[in-house]
Amino acid sequence: MDTDKTSPVQRLLDERIVFLGSEVTDEVANDICAQLLLLDSIAPDRDIFLYINSPGGSVTAGFAIFDTMNFVKADVATLALGFAASMGQFLLSSGKPGKRYALPNASIVMHQPHGGFGGTSADIQTQAKQILHFKRRMAELTSAQTGKPVEQIIEDGDRDRWFTADEACVYGFVDQVVGSTAALSR
Q1: How does residue 2 score in pLDDT terms, banded at 50, 70 and 90?
Q2: Which residues are known to be catalytic?
């Protein structure tokens, strides 16, 4: 019997795997960013794998992860397992082109950013402007990742749009549907 007391997270990090398995919050994003930066500092010439099973979450927290993925020298490959929705979908398609994967039964959901509004009418107007800014920015980035026109991304994301792994590959969110780790580029 294996008596190794190393945590599963540490064992994954030893394999250069970062796991996003929850809602994207500020705390989760800080952990993911720290792990990406750490792995890059150890071996910037080796790929980092970001495994995603997430319903999405905070746009600003997700952008912190996105920016860190692009900041590090190492290629960040992405893999959808289970569910990659909203910010999870955005991060999935933000992997290094050619290294974006989905498992065969993964579900991918694209939609526009959501937000809860509160405060004065001026506050609500400011928040609405910010949501529209995020919607446009995410559409521009997703357009660059998929090759689809920005306006099509906006239209397709106006409501929840579900994709199978194969459909996500055709749309351009991922490059390949894989059934085992042997199929991943390392």
Answers
A1: low
A2: 86, 111
